[in-house]
Amino acid sequence: MAGQAGSETVDIVVAGAGAAGCAAAIAAHDEGASVLLLEKMPTEEAGGNTRVSGGAWFDNRDAERAAVYLRSLCGDRPLPETVVRTWARETRHVSSWIESLGAVVAPNGDYKPEYPELDGSDCYGGYRCVDGELGAGRLYDVLSKAVGKRDIDVRYDTPARRLVRSPETGAVTGIVAGHDAEQQITARGGVILATGGFEADPEMVRTYLGLADPPLWGSLAATGDGHRMAMRAGADLWHMDNMMAVNGVAPPGSRHGFFAMFIYASGFLWVAPDGTRFVNETPQTGHGQARLHGSYELFPRLPMHVIFDERTRLAGPISPDADVMAVGWQVLMNGYRWSADNTAEIASGWIHRADTPAALAAALGVPADQLTATIDRYNAACAAGRDDAFGRPAKTLVPVDQPPFYAYTAKPMLAWTNGGPRRDEHARVLDPDGAAIAGLYAAGTVSSTYSWCKDGGFHIADAIAFGRIAGRHAANRRSELSPHSQRPPRSEPKASEEGATESSTSAPATCGRSRRTVRALAAGTRSRPLQCLRGRRRLPARARRPSGPDHSRDPRPVRRIESP
């Protein structure tokens, strides 16, 4: 058993330094609490999925209509009305709060709602992001610097291990953290879990999502640590079967994958392991769901072989590079740049090449006659301009008929999970009877609001909104338990709209030690992979959105894409 390295006491402990954790720590600090922010990863890999995300949040035009939209997106998986209304109100303040941290907030592109047919979608005002640019760690930089400017104790490479509970009341009173020399920290106001999802834990992924070893888009820190701590404290769970995945391809031996998106061409088809085509390859997709057979279903769900020809290979890279889509671990943290004509990936063996469909089938291990017949039927549909089998739009029906032929195996690449400990409108974690577990909070993808469908920019908005809620509520709880122990709150204007002030729920704060790396972040330092990705273009818009990126530096036609 690991040894104990002593104990200490603060007002609030926040576990996880992504968007939710930073928002919680800042909010609690600004309410007058002392805050300890624990980050599992070392400085150069800190920030969870926030660090490699698009860093955008949706522009909530109207709180009442946003509540309607969220109810519509949930469908037959309704949320408590108190959570819906709090989410709708608090996500209205994300832009003004980010601006209060010193950032310039601007729109990016002309993004439309992914579910325009649903009631309430008129609340959706597109993406807002730092400097009007997506990705490249911009949001994480802003949040990290804001933490560094405050008297918040940030400890990197310090994983949260387990919660401490009162034997008399069951309330969460602290946390044990660290590697070999664990340290017990008493949290007078509470512990806020912002530890991210469980996509990097293969056992949890198999149990809750039914996926076997999917490639990962984001941080390896997302191993369900907060989920297990909360469950041991008696937490109920929600949304555990919900997720956001995209088609991805992972190099042999790597857990991280690349988006496999074909944004420059549509001459490709998907086949199952038996060589048969099984779905429209270009469905109306959202952030995790697609409209299939009259309902919204998780998509993609199955591994598949992706077949294309020489025409498509020459059209452009299968996976967008940082100039187009500066997101994802492989691109931002590993610094990989996909070759413009896919030749490097073919040479590396990630993509199979063959002169005939039959030879390609042999490389894939599928029946040659079946794959050949499947490609022939697809090409016949292209010639007819009509896909009777699966309803693929005619404008996307480009034949696969120019040898040589190519294929790679794609899997659902997990961007994030949505399920976790159930929480209420104050971000308090609930037990199976619906009672709040005193002193325990959760925010971000460890306990996402979204029970089913979600739109672009929803996850960052949710993380910041409920991170701030958790921070304020925990800080106020500390003040109520010991009203004379806190310093005065930081005097900063709070975001308001049309004369309405924000709800006064509380959040965690931090104390002041081990801030060397925080000061470095505040000074604007960045890990090497991020330094080499400046000057990128804005992320293109979705295929059905009316306007998109500036292609003046690249004359190739593009299918517009989306960012998680």
TrEMBL record:
Residues 475-564 are annotated as: Disordered. GO terms for molecular function: steroid dehydrogenase activity, acting on the CH-CH group of donors. Gene3D superfamilies: FAD/NAD(P)-binding domain, Succinate dehydrogenase/fumarate reductase flavoprotein, catalytic domain. GO terms for biological process: steroid metabolic process. Residues 534-545 have a biased composition (Basic residues). Residues 501-510 have a biased composition (Low complexity). Pfam families: FAD_binding_2. Its cofactor is FAD. Residues 11-453 form the FAD-dependent oxidoreductase 2 FAD-binding domain. Keywords: FAD, Flavoprotein, Oxidoreductase. InterPro entries: FAD-dep_OxRdtase_2_FAD-bd, FAD-oxidoreductase_2, FAD/NAD-bd_sf, Succ_DH/fumarate_Rdtase_cat_sf. Residues 547-564 have a biased composition (Basic and acidic residues). PANTHER family: 3-OXOSTEROID 1-DEHYDROGENASE (PTHR43400:SF10), FUMARATE REDUCTASE (PTHR43400). This is FAD-dependent oxidoreductase. The lineage of its organism: Bacteria, Bacillati, Actinomycetota, Actinomycetes, Streptosporangiales.
